[in-house]
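During the no-cost extension, the postdoctoral fellow (Dr. R.K.) reprocessed legacy sequence entries with the updated structure-token encoder. One reprocessed record is reproduced below for audit purposes.
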Amino acid sequence: MKVTIENKKGLNKDLKVFVDKKTMNTYMDEKYNEIKETVNLKGFRPGKVPKEILKRQFGKAVFSEVLDKILKETSTKALEENKIKPAGQPKLDLKTYGEDKELEYIISVTELPKVETKPIENIKFDQYTVKIDAKETDKRINEIAKNQPNFKDSSLDSKAKDGDLVVFDYTATVDDKPFKGGEGKNTQLTLGKDLFLKGFDKQLIGVKKGDEKIVEAVLPENFPEKDLINKKAKFNCIITSLKNPEKIVINDEFAKNLGAKDLKDLKLLISKQIKDEYKNSLERLSKNQILKELEKFKINEIPENLLEEEIKILSQGMKDDDAKKNRKNFEEVAKKRIKVGLILNEFGEQNKIKVTEQELQAEVQKQVRMMPGQEKMVIDFYQKNQSALASLRGTVYEEKIISAIKEKAKPNNKEVTKDQAEKILKDSQKNENENLKEKTDVKEKKVETKKTSSKKSSVKSPKLKPKIKKVSKK
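Re-encoded structure tokens follow.
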């Protein structure tokens, strides 16, 4: 194989590839020998079919398969030997090809620009840790205790009041007729919360254990029996138990009921829980600071094909006139995205960052946990959609790169209180909204919010899948 570079214009290059006739014939012979062992033709023993017979029978199919193989191997090798990283898919223009002929073709490729990652070490960003005051931890534990149901049996002559737990059996009728779902055993209601049917609780105030009470209530819009919706039902309730709320004592026993070793351990767990609630949001701020710094890096030339692809994504769903009006804004956003993506990619390659199968599956499980009750649906989605799985891999890859950048860059470590963390996040959101409002009108705002506010960067490596243009046989 002989490769020469022609028409070098900036990032665009044409590579002429020449494969001699002898090499082509060697590939063809190997393929014929391969199919000779498997083909069955009448009048010939397996493995004994003459090459000429095979050529007449399978010549075109064999040549097409061999040509595809040679183009893939030689184009990949040509780019690797000349240290060219393609931005997008290279195009192949066949000049000379055919059985018992040499192969000559042109690879038209746009090269990724050279990216300098050394300045990353000088990037400054805020690295936050949240200091949780003991009062905050105690406040959270008291809230948990307040929401933990704890009741004790009331005295026999005690009457039900707001906050009490009433346990009852009931049978219900509409127009004196029973209906499906109109019976209940050991139904529990905490009076005052109005969680059963609207106005039901109030009618149980004053009942005692052993009482029989008729309660009237309108069946709701979401009632399963459609023909009974909004109809008044009578509930014949027999009160089987009445319990009064009892204040929970926050002690080691309380902590153990929540899964902690003791109260001290519970406080540590709750403190960590509060920290974690702010951790991800504050880390996103740090990440956005890093991405904004990367936007300032200088890259001499942005590949035109990548720019057009990104603009097409940004203007997706818009009318042609609106897309043209907003092209300048889209170009600015697209250039920043591409620049950041190229820098992240280069840094990832230089530092040999990869996403393992275990890391990818861990992220899938994370997505599963975020959809309780729909676990199977989420797992099936990623199993059947390779593009979604690839996108998830890209997200994990980017996060690993950002983590590696943080280790090399210069963090400005800040310890903040919970209140300070809330203010930082609130101010950050306010600034984002103001910047978005300044840049766009109402229609553009919808596009920008969807496409740019998340600051996602494209960090996927370009795929080598050449487009082949067959021109002529010589």
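Residues 118-129+279-451 form a domain with the Trigger factor, domain 2 fold (CATH 1.10.3120.10). The longest strand covers residues 177-190. The remaining legacy entries will be reprocessed before the final report is submitted.
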